[in-house]
Specification:
The protein is α/β, with parallel strands linked by helices. It has one domain: Ureohydrolase domain (Arginase, Chain A), CATH 3.40.800. 38% of the residues lie in helices and 17% in strands. It contains nine helices and eight strands. Strands 2-1-3-8-7-4-5-6 form an eight-stranded parallel beta sheet, with helices on both faces. The chain starts with a strand and ends with a helix. The relative contact order is 0.18.
């Protein structure tokens, strides 16, 4: 397991603090002595790396994230990226797409998020636009699945409908979590899989330390169940955990949940 910190933010000032999430999560991971599978954990034995970025130079940071991620996909079997805000996923998923093209493999992207992140992209896509920019740059639309969305702008709804992007809303998840999870796993079957986890997919009662809290989200137990199931997918190549903001956290709840999610992926 290869873990890469990416302390990059591009949220127009709204995500300041997320750059310190990687270190905070890894520090909290030291307090988890074994995961729920009974596997002992030792942070000192983990294969860790950081992509060092200058958040005052967004274009340079994006290129660095892309370049390093592409190299990682070519050399590592499975990687966890610790953000940063959701803008990091623009560079990592573009690299994932190009890697799959180079290997003649079919890419698949599953995004857990309260929001669609499909606003009109800026020159350097922020955390609100990264997914739309990725789609417009050629990621196969039919291989994208948005899970847990519950607050979507009118413009985004039109974009999702026009491009026939598959979504699973929170109301569907809560009807029958196990059956929906079976469907998610079936969606990824036979493809190279990248999973992006925006912590705001979780209800703020369990994860208050994020920039855009949305009521009515997943419980901590539900997200851990989904992560543990998805981690069994043989073709899972990468996971990112983003939008954890230690500066906005309450009693370390969100950081602890981020560490718990990470522990279940190891």
């Amino acid at each position: 397991m290869f873990i890469v910190k990416i302390p990059s933010i591009n949220g127009l000032g709204h995500t300041k603090g997320c750059e310190s999430a990687g270190n905070a999560i890894l520090k909290e991971l030291r307090e988890i002595h074994s995961n729920e599978k009974g596997i002992p954990l030792n942070v000192d034995l983990l294969d860790l790396e950081e992509i060092h970025v200058d958040n005052s130079k967004i274009d340079e940071a994006n290129n660095l994230i892309y370049k390093n991620s592409l190299e990682i996909f070519e050399t590592k079997l499975k990687t966890i990226f610790l953000g940063g805000d959701h803008s990091i996923s623009y560079g990592t998923t573009r690299a994932f797409l190009d890697h799959c093209k180079n290997q003649s493999k079919e890419p698949c992207l599953i995004v857990f998020d309260a929001h669609a992140d499909c606003m009109e992209p800026m020159k350097e896509p922020t955390h609100e636009e990264w997914l739309r920019a990725l789609i417009e740059q050629g990621f196969p639309k039919e291989n994208i699945l948005l899970v847990g969305i519950r607050n979507v702008w009118k413009e985004e709804i039109s974009f999702l409908n026009k491009n026939k992007i598959k979504t699973i809303r929170m109301s569907q998840l809560t009807e029958n979590l196990e059956d929906v999870c079976d469907g998610i796993m079936e969606f990824a079957n036979g493809k190279e899989l990248y999973v992006s986890i925006d912590i705001d997919v979780v209800d703020p009662a369990f994860a208050p330390g994020t920039g855009y809290c949305e009521a009515g989200g997943l419980t901590s137990r539900q997200i851990l169940y989904l992560v543990s199931r998805i981690n069994r997918i043989k073709n899972l190549r990468a996971v990112d955990i983003v939008e954890v903001n230690p500066e906005k956290d309450v009693n370390n709840q969100t950081i602890k949940l981020g560490a718990k999610i990470l522990s279940e992926l190891i």
